[in-house]
Amino acid sequence: MKGSVYMLPMTLGDSSIDSVIPNEVQERIKTLKYFIVENIKTTRRYLKKIDKSIDIDELTFFELNKHTNHNEITDFIVPALNGNDIGMISEAGCPGIADPGSEIARMAHLKGIIVKPLVGPSSILMALISSGMNGQEFSFNGYLPFDKSKRSKKIKDLERLAQRNFTQLFMETPFRNNALLEEVLKNCNGGLKLCIAADISLETEFIQTKTIAEWKKNIPNLKKRPVMFVLGK
Questions:
Q1: Residue 65: pLDDT band with limits 50, 70, 90
Q2: In the chain, what are the domains?
Q3: What is the per-residue DSSP string for 44-100?
């Protein structure tokens, strides 16, 4: 009998485990001996926060990120083929969205392995539901282009969709947040709404929705803070 692949949530930062990770999920994690993770060091700290008695040396970790050789990935699900359950853990939030976790889920389906998603924090959904914008029709666009001219064009494209009440979510690496915000304020209509959701679920959480014109009057400093941007009506 084959094992299952559990898509496991990770905290979005240094928040209390019990405040964002359901007890049932914590208990499931304690039963696992095999993990596919985006960052081994981060995962080890996470597991110790869940239960200090977990013996890390008894666990097997496969690291899946942009540096992983694609030819090695098929080996990661071998334990499941041999009857062992595997946990897939992202660097933050839920795996399979804006990280390589989707490759594991896709491969598991191809091999007839059951994929089980478990409940936990998602910065995308948490930003959307707190923004006050249309949650019926929306798109997550991930990271916008690095090239300035391409990024400006992309922002204008997102603005046109947002004007039609199709909510648009996007993000940037923390040290480039301020530059992206500047581009958004420069390229978008003053009446359009922008939600800035920073440090979601942390003690320093900041979530506010204002018009572009209102944000221009008081621009926040978002440097080195994880942020989800939501553009809409």
A1: confident
A2: 4-117 (3.40.1010.10), 123-232 (3.30.950.10)
A3: HHHHHHH-TT--GGG-EEEE-STTS-GGGHHHHTHHHHTT--EEEE-SSBSTTSSST
